[in-house]
Amino acid sequence: MSVPFRIGVLQLSMEPLQQTVRMAQACERAGFDIFWLAEAYPWWRKHGFEARSSTAITAVVAAQTQRIVMGWGIISPYTRHPVQIAMEARVMQDAAGGRFLLGLGASKIFMKEIGEGEQGREVGPAVVMRESIEIITAVLAGGPVEYRGEAFQASAPALKDEAHASRARVPIYIGATGPVLQRLAGSHADGLLTASITTPDFIRYARGNMEEGARRAGKDSSSLDLGGVIVGSINRDSKKGKEGAREMAAMYLANKVQNIRGSADVLLEKAGLKFEEIAPIADAMEKSGRKAAAQAVTDDILIKVRAIAGTPDQCCERIAEYRAAGCTNIMLEIWGDDREQQAKLFGEAVLPNFR
């Protein structure tokens, strides 16, 4: 069973609630397939934003939209027990019905930012992810749960027949940069979500790992979805259309230098970027903020990042490049001025080319 090609929008949970609701509604009107919300973390306070609970926000957004699929992209079982995640997913089932996707990831930077880390943990992220998926799936299915794993324990009686709760299965994705978790996405999940600064070369790398995991588990890899977070912006004028992507790329590249250097190596390698090449961006971000960092993103760096940015035709060309590389789920992170208007322009001039 092949996976349909979908184009969605991803936003960080760092903006006022009603602003996020309006953006989701604008994306729905424009014809986007999915509205993903990624959980922000306190690092963004340095740049004038505040982290908010993505699970709470998506429930509100789901109740104020009708068609667009809602996605958690991602939340972390290091900050929520899998039973709690299943409880929050139950709310999403009520709010969104069948239009809900659940993304899990280690989110090590979140743990680093709040001062927890993973010190003292005796199991690795792959065990945490696998056990989380098993517990969440079991709790949502409604049967009795008695789980004793290496990372988690869980216990719950079965739902009674008269209980008003869905037993429907929720599609689960793993957000991953490294090969171990990418293979786990192939063997134990419905798909894989890649991080910011994803490029077509990284998509090919990630798909290879995901499909290897599926083969080892005896699964049909054609049924697996591969979503890539890609920065972007659009305007009828090419230069203006790239301004938002330049700023968002600056924030993410600075983040890679400052916070997650080790796990970012392969992302940067596939983009043809070196740490010394992007270090000035991180320095500008630290000293003068995101606007200054955006100015440090050269045209050459922006080309390497492979942003979906510029005119509608340029955005179409880039989306086609990602689809050819094996991406089945574009997670477009729109940035820049008047994003609701940008969503409208994507809907008018880009999305119809991929239906």
Question: Explain this structure to me?
Answer:
The chain is an alpha/beta fold and 355 residues long. The protein has one domain: Luciferase-like domain (TIM Barrel, Alpha-Beta Barrel). Helix content is 49%, strand content 17%. The protein has 14 helices and 11 strands. The strands form 2 sheets. It has an 8-stranded parallel β-barrel with strand order 1-2-3-4-7-8-9-11, surrounded by 8 helices. A two-stranded antiparallel ribbon has the order 5-6. Helix 3 crosses helix 5 (125-141) and helix 5 runs parallel beside helix 6. The longest helix is centred in the C-terminal third of the chain and has 21 residues, at 238-258. It is globular.
Beta-strand level of the residues, as a percent range? 15-25%
Count every helix, treating DSSP H or I runs of 4 or more residues as helices. Answer: 14
**CATH class bucket:** Alpha Beta
Number of beta-strand segments: 11
Order of helices and strands: EHEHEHEHHEEEHEHEHHHHHEHEH
* Termini Cα gap: 18 Å
Average pLDDT reading: 92
Q: Specify the CATH architecture.
A: Alpha-Beta Barrel
What is the domain tally?
1
Percent of residues in helices:
40-55%
User: Radius of gyration in whole Å, from Cα?
Assistant: 20 Å
User: CATH homologous superfamily name?
Assistant: Luciferase-like domain
Please describe the topology of this protein.
Elements: E1 6-12, H1 17-30, E2 34-38, H2 54-63, E3 69-75, H3 82-96, E4 100-105, H4 108-114, H5 125-141, E5 145-148, E6 153-156, E7 172-175, H6 179-188, E8 191-194, H7 200-217, E9 225-234, H8 238-258, H9 261-271, H10 275-288, H11 290-295, H12 299-305, E10 308-310, H13 312-325, E11 329-334, H14 339-349
Parallel strand pairs: 1-2, 1-11, 2-3, 3-4, 4-7, 7-8, 8-9, 9-10, 9-11
Antiparallel strand pairs: 5-6
